[in-house]
Amino acid sequence: MKIFEFMTSTIEGCDINTTILEATKRMRDLNVGAVPVFQNQKVTGLVTDRDIVVRAIAAELNPATTPLGEIMSKELQFCNSNDEIQLAAQIMEKEQVRRLLVKSAEGDVVGIVSLGDIATHVSKDLSGEILQQISQPSHPKK
Q1: Could you tell me which residues are beta bridge partners of residue 7?
Q2: Domain boundaries, the chain
Q3: Exposure string over 1-25, b if 16+ CB within 10 A, otherwise e
Q4: Which backbone phi and psi does 139 adopt, to 5 degrees?
């Protein structure tokens, strides 16, 4: 199964200077957990609900004045719209991420695919295995 068959193809992003507060309202209205961040019509980052909690709220940044550019993830992970679902799962597992931006053959960002999307389109065994691998702690237990 190809990524384009189940990815979210409506990209609702925010400008790099959008405040965290504005972005959270947009995420609420769209019922999403992540938004791509654009600068000059080019995707330069991704902000997730977890980024907001860990990088902004825990650091006591003011969500009404702090721009997304200060908290966004800048190391983006991509797959191509014609890639097989298994390749997206492998990238997520290797990079320990739950979302990938999707590019067209021309290199334009045309969608986003999440672990949830994969879980609903592959076997329970494979999606459970992927989730287990992605959810490995990045630091040792105390």
Answers
A1: none
A2: 3-134
A3: eebbebbeeebebbebebbbebbbe
A4: -135, 150
CATH 3.40.50.1470 assigned to domain 3-134? The reply is no
Does the structure show a pLDDT above 70 at 118? yes
Distance CA 28, CA 21 (A): 11
Question: For residues 102 and 112, what is the distance between their CA atoms, to the nearest angstrom?
Answer: 5
DSSP state, residue 139: S
- pLDDT digit string, tens, across residues 61-108: 999 999 999 999 999 999 999 999 889 988 998 998 999 999 999 989
Measure Cα distances from 138 to 71, 76, 108, 133, 135 in Å: 19, 18, 31, 11, 9
Bridge partners for 19 per DSSP? 67
Strand partners, 102: 79, 111
